[in-house]
Amino acid sequence: MYQRFLGLVAPPIGLAYVAAALENDGHEVMIIDMPAEAKDVDEVKEDIERFHSDVVGVYCATYRVNHANDVINTAKDVDVSIKTLMGGPHASLLAEDCMKNGNLDAVVCGEGEITTPELMRTWESGGNLAKVKGIVFRKGGGIVRNPPRELADVDSLPYPARHLLPMDEYKLFGTFKLGTMISSRGCTYGCHYCSVAAIYGRKWRPRNPKRIVDEMEYLQKNYDIDVLTFMDDNFDLDKKRVMTLCDEIRERDLDILWGYQSASVIKDEEMLKKLRNVGCRILTYSIETSSRKSIDVMKKKINMQQVRDVFQISKELGMIRIANIILGLPGETKKDVEESIELARALDPEYALFFLPTPYPGTKFYETAEKMGMIKELDWSKYDTANPIIETGQLSLSELRELNKRAYKEFYLRPAIIKNNLKIFYDFMKEGYIKPVHIPGLMSHLLRTFLYLARL
Ligand code: B12
Ligand code: SF4
Predict the structure, then answer these.
(1) How many CB atoms lie within 10 A of CB 332?
(2) Is the CB of 59 under 6 A from ligand 1?
(3) CA 86, CA 101: separation in Å to the nearest integer?
């Protein structure tokens, strides 16, 4: 959905953080971004052979488990002495389950920057794995889970090793050269469907605004990006930090187009104006649902009147607004979902993404859905929020699938969308953010999207 509607292909920044920590520890590292480089497992096999890898590690989100296992198995096919490991949200939450793949040697749970180099050193020296915090590993015939690793000091981490990534492949709207950053980690909210809270608890760790702007400058200078997106879990949790960050950007006269995803949709005209004035022009709002009932059940902190006001204010400020909406949370009826679709149209953002409720293992939502027998789809590869997973007394899998299609058609196939997009793109052209070189990519992205919608 992100790629289809927003033309977004984003770098795997978590892997790049781990790679930077490994390079600092003296390792030679290669990153293969399989989706961005359109590589299949055979090509990865060739890369592993060519690079003479001693260790192969894979990022594992729930919907990529099968791919992750394919890569792990391939590594062992190349050479059984290659050590294999997994990290990322699914591996962190379901490490023991992942270890059912006998080719997997270890899982790094949670953050990888400290644990992974330590694990490598222990493997190299033949040391005691029981001393490496934050891993799950094999011992004798069993699987051992070590105590968790303390969270890292986010200001002391090296920049992600972007030089190992195919940076030209990362795009927004199919055409803008994209850079991404993480300015804080974690979130205090604890929404029931969120893996972040399940892995890291409810701790929010902000980076220092000066260091954030240092990295923004570095990214602009070294990678010639057109747009920067912050991929934080909760970027604007602390207004004071946002304001200081904006001051720092202004003081350094940094001219950069950027955006972020707002978890809380805060109505704060002063902050929005300030953001706008320092290049923040693309805001994604996670509204999730129009149903008060679902918001309460899922422990989402959101106020609908605020949402409407924020969308209006950010429209007046000339922002590109993207609304994220979940359709069919437990308890919602068809009518509730229709209201959510209607809400999306009424808010009238430039883009909307509709997600189907997906209970990720390890979350409270999963626990409840499992207990209540709602989970009807067991194939992890379908857990990408585009496929229906749960069935409730109110909505069946096929109804959810249909409502999701309907949401896209009813939202996008209307004149207001074309008008909004033309206006914003015209403004962005006048302001120099869209250059002639961007137009063919943008046009082909829009055409592809509309062809997809027409066939839906
Ligand atoms: C930014 C983001 C996106 C971006 C960019 C994705 C990208 N390519 O980077 C976009 C918007 C595109 C996106 C899309 C989706 N996302 Co997303 N996304 C995130 C978010 C908010 C931050 C990820 C991040 O960069 N974190 C910062 C880095 C530093 O942390 P990290 O990635 O976890 O990496 C650390 C550790 O995990 C570990 N590690 C990671 N990899 C490895 C590998 C090895 C070998 C080792 C040892 C360690 C290790 O070390 C890293 C450094 O400490 C996370 C939430 C989260 N905090 O994880 C959700 C999250 C990863 N997304 C999620 C989902 C579901 C999706 C979607 C499928 C659907 C959706 N509705 O959003 C799509 C998939 C599209 C796609 N093809 O990628 C889920 C995954 C849940 C799960 N159990 O699998 C998460 C956890 C959010 C949630 N709902 O709970 N996402
Ligand atoms: S606001 Fe977002 S990051 Fe925070 S707990 Fe909820 S879903 Fe997770």
Answers:
(1) 26
(2) yes
(3) 11
Do 2-145 and 175-455 share a fold?
A: no
Return left, alpha or beta for 45; rule: phi > 0 is left, psi -120 to 50 is alpha, else beta. Answer: alpha
In the block, residue with structure tokens 């400058």: 217
pLDDT per position as a tens digit, 207-227: 999 999 999 999 999 999 999
Which residue in the block uniquely carries the two structure tokens 């770098």? 11
The residue whose C-alpha atom lies closest to atom 51 belonging to ligand 1 is 14
Taking the CA of residue 107 as reference, the ligand 1 atom at the shortest distance is: 47
Per residue in 107-143, pLDDT (tens digit) is 999 999 999 999 999 999 999 999 999 999 999 999 9
CATH number of the 2-145 domain: 3.40.50.280
* CATH class for the region spanning 175-455: alpha beta
Residue 108 — φ and ψ, nearest 5°?
A: -100, 115
The verdict on the CB of residue 234 being under 6 Å from ligand 2 is yes
Tell me the whole-structure pTM to 2 decimals. Answer: 0.96
Buried b (16+ CB within 10 A) or exposed e, 374-413: beebeebebbbbbbbbbbbeebebebbeebbebbbebbbe
Q: HSE of 447 in the Cβ direction (CA atoms, 13 Å)?
A: 7
List the chain domain ranges.
2-145, 175-455
For residue 75 and ligand 2, the question of a CB distance below 6 A is answered with no
